[in-house]
Structure formats: C-alpha cells, structure tokens
Design goal:
heterodimer, A: alpha/beta, Rossmann fold, 6-stranded mixed sheet, 4-stranded antiparallel sheet, B: elongated, Permease_MalE (chain B), transmembrane helix (chain B), transmembrane (chain B)
Amino acid sequence: MIEIHNIHKSFNGKKVLDGVSGVFQTGKTNLLLGASGTGKSVLLKCIVGLVKPDIGSVTFDGTYFTNNKLDIKQEIRRKIGMLFQGSALFDSMTVEENVEFPLKMLNGMSKDERLDRVNFCLQRVGLEGTNKKMPSELSGGMKKRVGIARAIAPKCTYLFCDEPNSGLDPLTALKIDRLIKEITEEYNITTIVVTHDMNSVIEIGDNIMFLYEGKKLWEGTSDNILDSDVPELNEFIFANRLMRDAKKVEEEERNQAE
Amino acid sequence: MDEAILIGINSIFIVALVSTFIGAVSTVQVSYNMESAFIPRSTIGFIVREMIILELAPTITSIVLAGKVGSSIAGGLGTMQITEQVDALEVMGINSISYLVLPKIIAALLVFPMLVILAMFLGLMGGYLAGTLTGQLTAQEYITGIRIDFIPYNITFALIKSVIFAFLISSISSFRGYFTSGGALEVGSASTAAVTNSVIAVLIADFVCAQLLL
C-alpha cells in the first residue's frame, strides 16, 4: 500500500500539485486520471522520488520515503518497477539485456538464473523469442511490453505506469491495460497508472483518483465514475461521444429496472 | 572497457590522420621559414619535434577529441535524459551519475595519454615523410634534428596536459549531456555547447599548464 499526504509541488512559481493526498491499495490497479497538464505525471514522479515535493510525504507499506536516508530510499526503489511513457528501453541493449539489466545490477543471481527469469518475464508479456532484438526493431506496443517485462523482472512490489497506452492503437492499448491488471492481481502488487484514456478507466480502474489543476477532485471506482457529480470530471468523461452513449444506455437500463 | 573502445579505438583514425598531416605541414612550413645558410637543416627537425611534443600532439589531439568524443558523450547522455532512460536507472535504485558518467571520465583519463603518444609518434613520422619526400631535408638531417637536446620532461609535461584535458573534456561533455532537458533540439544544443566549452577549457588549461609546469 502506498500513501501520499498533502503533496505540493511548484515549478518556477507555478503550482502543479496542490495538497494531493490519497491511498493506493495493494492488489488493485490505481489510476491517476486527468487532462493533460493537471499534474498526474509530476505526482507519479513525486511518489517514486524522481521529483522532490515541496511539501508532503509518501510512505510505502508504512515506511517513510520522501526525505528518508538514501539507503532506505534505495531499498524501496529496488522494489519499484516502472513503465515509462516512451518505454525508456536502453537503446544500446537487446531486449534480453534490457530485461536482465535490473537483475544484473541489483540481485545476486547467476547468469543462468537471470536468463530463466528473463525468459519467464518475456513469455509473461507474450514476447518469447524476441531476446536478441534491439529496441529499434520493435513496434510501440512491443516496446511497452518489454518495458513491463523489465519492470516486473526483479519481482517488484510496486508497479508504476506513466500513460502505458499512449500512442498505441485501441486493440494494443487494451492488451497492455489487461496485461497490467493481470500482473497486478497475479503478483498482488500495488499498481499506479497515469492515464487520460477513458477506455483504460472502464477496463482496469479499480481505484481512480481524478486530478484537476493539481488538486484531487474525485476518488472512486470505474463502477461509479459515470455517476459522479463533479462538473470538471463529467466534462472530462463526457467529452467522448462513446461515454455519453454509455451513460444514456446505463440510465435507460436503470429506468427499465425501476 | 566499452567506453575505452568508444573513446579510444574509434578515435585512432582521426587522431592518426590529423597528427600525421600536422607533422608534415609543420615540417614544410618551418623549412620554408628557415632558408638560411647559417642555420643547419637539422634545426627543422628540432623545431618540429618541440612543436609536436609540447603543443601540437596534446592540444590539437585534445581539440579534435573534444569535437568527436565530447559531442558523442553529450549527445548520448542527452538522448538518454530526454528519453527517460536516466530516470529508469534512478527508479531502479541505480546512481545514474556513477553508472553513466564515471566510466566515461575514467576511460578518457586512460585513453587520452595513449592517443597523445600515438599522435606524437605519427606527427614526427609525418614530418619525416614530408621533409624527405619533398626534398626539404635529408633523413639524416631530420633524425639528427629530432634528437638534439631532447628533454624527457617534455614528454611528461605533454602527458600531464593530456590527462588534464581528458578530465575537462569528459566531465564538461558529461555535464552538458546529463543536464539536458527538452527534446531533440536541446540535445543538439547540448552537444554544441559541450564541444565549444571543452575547447575553451582546453585552451585555458593549456596556457595555465605552460605557465605552471614549464
């Protein structure tokens, strides 16, 4: 479980996060939802320690992280897997070397053990047999899956995904979303996904936090998001025609039931 | 080792080319300026040797390497930074500066002196070839010249300079690359800044070394 408390962050006097607090549950896919520029990625970077919040704290399973000693932060970071928006695969390494990298650097595993783990992770994300390919030879969806394989290789406890399906076609995006959800439930890890994609929200949103201009305006699940009474959230959701239609169908079904 | 190959082995051709031609041109130009019956022709070899060992081999080689290696280091690190590869290392709990920058500085410190020694040898060889093939002076005169009043400390001085230049080029380029933010345009700017800053630093350090060590 990850807890954030009163996170504030400004860049050059511009407030990006304004007192965001919340709890991200273990075994659940927690979504940070919001339009572009609302501070979702900054909040994610504050949580993993890539950006230092001006005020506020983050705890991982009760262990204080934000301003703790470096060795404690490093210890927590070794339990973190992260999928970046652009995948962030190491260009000079093959797929196998990319996935093996965290194992080589952090775990005292033998070469054979590492290769077994690499093959297992690649198989888990449906990329068996791509070991010797370079990142430049992969499609966008494959890069994301290699990124997930690299994130889960060291048996992470916390998985962070920054817009995992941006730039992907709807079918591949759906596959990535489902893979993230499956992995979260299978390994009982705490997953936080930054997204502005309503398909992801409906598909995998166990716990959703809606950010607007750096503030948390709403929190709930994919089951009750269509019933929200927050105007900013409704404007965000129903900008999409499909969502408006979905809302109509839901209301019709409810009326018929009554 | 990979960094040493990248910085060293991949730079041998350009260093060899530049140093050979600089030695050759130096010999021809010194010869042109010393058309006097009162000055022995072997003096040309002496002057070329002093120029190459004290200044041309360490400084010109370093300036060439600032262009080739400096831009490569800054471009590579800058690209890693903007594509979040550096963030990926940090999230894994790896100190990205130790992992990415330190090997480049160590490799440069090891490889630059070797390249400077190569440049000295090839510069003198270029001078020999240019002098003898164009008939400016005989082989005997050139070899006599490069052996006159040889001071071993000059080699030490050149190697000390090469180590200082290696540190300046690798650290300035790494700094410029590591702290790149933005996009592809900024990576290009970082590479350009890395080269210009490194060259300026090398020239200033060259003057300071000459003042302090000679």
